[in-house]
Structure formats: structure tokens, C-alpha cells
Amino acid sequence: MIARPSLADREDVLGGMMLAPALAYVILLVGVPFVFAILLGFSNATAGSLSFGWAGLDNYRAILSDPIFLRALRNSVVVTIGSQVLVVVLATAAAQVFRATFRGKSFARFVLLLPWAVPVSLAAIAWTWIFDSTFSVIKQAWRIFPFATVIVLAGLSSIPQEVVEAAIVDGAGFWRRLFRVELPLLLPVLAVAVLFGVVYTATDLGVVYILTGGGPANTTHVLPTLAFQRGILGADLGQGAAIAVFLLPFLIVVAIAMLRLAHRTEVGGAR
């Protein structure tokens, strides 16, 4: 008598069952609101009204001629690009430090991760004091830096020790090893870190909203805060949605470029 295969033996069915909750979450709580936001961007919908008229590209024409939107777009680009440049430089430097052996290394790693673990609201409230014109102690903030440092440190740990030792035997100093050996091998890891950082920074609402609320005089708005102001506080759901999804094509291009860079680097390294 042939025993019937159990569920544990049917990997195709078991895999589908295990993936089903995650897929349901993505579809219901991410996919549906995302599609709805795109549709809102082409409508004249407003809060408190059930009307949903088709507006075409009117919302996009309106925001592209709005100086406040253009300023928010510029702020978003500057903050996103500037922060990622600093993240790559600081995370690489910090990963080199944590690669070494020293007393208190575990505690130092714990302290490094604190900014990442602290809720955004608490961190932003703390920075309102740090940025205070009278009582400020320092003038710059960083939150994605710990996450990027952990990623880069993991990438450095994955580099074969024989490669580093061969570079040392060939007489390569620290800087030559860094730029000629380690950073090229770290490109896939750095691409993933930058991709996460770009998406996270470009879509972040909490920090700027808590710190400045977009003021004074709408000068510190980024696209997420301006979308919230127009769509939720201003009740213009159509224009708010258009602002919110405006960067979507650019983020998709960045994601594809970063993933291709990571793939090509991995293939080149494998050869």
C-alpha cells in the first residue's frame, strides 16, 4: 500500500500556503491603496464628498505651475541625494571601524543601532531641541546611517579574506585596498543600501512634518508633507494624490538601475 504524501511532502502547496499571508498583506494594505492613490491623482475628488469626477492631467498641470510644489520637489531631491552621499561615506567609514577588534565593540554596535530603533516621532522631537536656535548642541541629524552601516559591515565580512591578504602581500595600503579591492566588491551591497535609503528618504513624512510642518511660509516642505497638507488638511484629495505619486516613475527608474548595477557587479565578481 502506497502512503499518501503529507502536506509537508508537497513543497509547492506548502510554499503557496506560507506565502499567502504575506501576499494578502501586500495586496490589501499596499496594492489596493496604491492603485486608489493613482486613480485619485486623475480625479477632482475632495474630502467630505462622494463625487469622483475624471480630471485627467489637470492636477499635474496645476502642481507643475505651483512654486510651492517646485520648491518641495527641489527640497526632496536635495535631501534625498545629499543624505545618500553622506550615508555611503559615513557608513563605509563606520563599517571599517567596527571591522576592527577593540574593547567595548558590542556596546558600541548597540549604541550605533539606537537611532534606527528609536521611533521616528521621538527622534524628531529630540531634533527639535537639537535644532533650536538658542539651545542647539549640534546642527545635523542622521537616521538611515546605522542601517547602512550594518549592511556595509555585512558586505565587508563577506569579502574573502584571501583577496584582502593577497592585496596586502602585493603592497596595497589601506586606501588602495579600499578603493581598488573592497569598494568594487561592495557595489552590490552599497546599491541595495542606497536603494533603501532613496525610497525611505523620498517618501518620509514624519521627520519634516514634526520638525517644521513645512514652514516657515512653506519653505521646508518635501513632497510627502506637501501632499499631506493639500490632500488631507486642504481636503483636495486629487491634488494631494498627484503630489504623492509624482516621484513614482523616478523611484522605479532608480530601483531598476540599482538592481541592475548590483546584478552586473555580482555576475562580474563571479567570473
- Report the top-level CATH class: Mainly Alpha
Radius of gyration: 24 Å
At CATH's second level, what is the architecture?
Orthogonal Bundle
The CATH superfamily name is MetI-like
- How far the N terminus sits from the C terminus, by CA atoms, comes to 51 Å
Mean of the pLDDT scores? 82
Profile the largest sheet: none
Oligomer: single chain
Strand portion, in percent? under 5%
> What is the count of distinct domains?
1
**Helix share of residues?**
over 70%
Please provide the ordered H/E string of secondary-structure elements: HHHHHHHHHHHH
Total strand count, please?
A: 0
Shape: globular
Indicate the low-confidence ranges by residue numbers.
none
Structural class: mainly alpha
- Number of DSSP helical runs: 12
* Named CATH topology: MetI-like fold
Descriptive labels:
271 residues; mainly alpha; MetI-like fold; 12 helices; 72% helix
Please give the structural blueprint:
Layout: H1 11-41, H2 58-64, H3 67-99, H4 105-117, H5 120-130, H6 145-158, H7 161-169, H8 174-202, H9 206-211, H10 223-233, H11 237-244, H12 248-270
Your description of this structure?
The protein is mostly helical and 271 residues long. The protein has one domain: MetI-like fold. Helices cover 72% and strands 0% of the residues. The protein contains twelve helices and no strands. It has helices at 11-41, 58-64, 67-99, 105-117, 120-130, 145-158, 161-169, 174-202, 206-211, 223-233, 237-244, 248-270. α2 crosses α11 and α6 packs across α8. The longest helix has 33 residues, at 67-99.
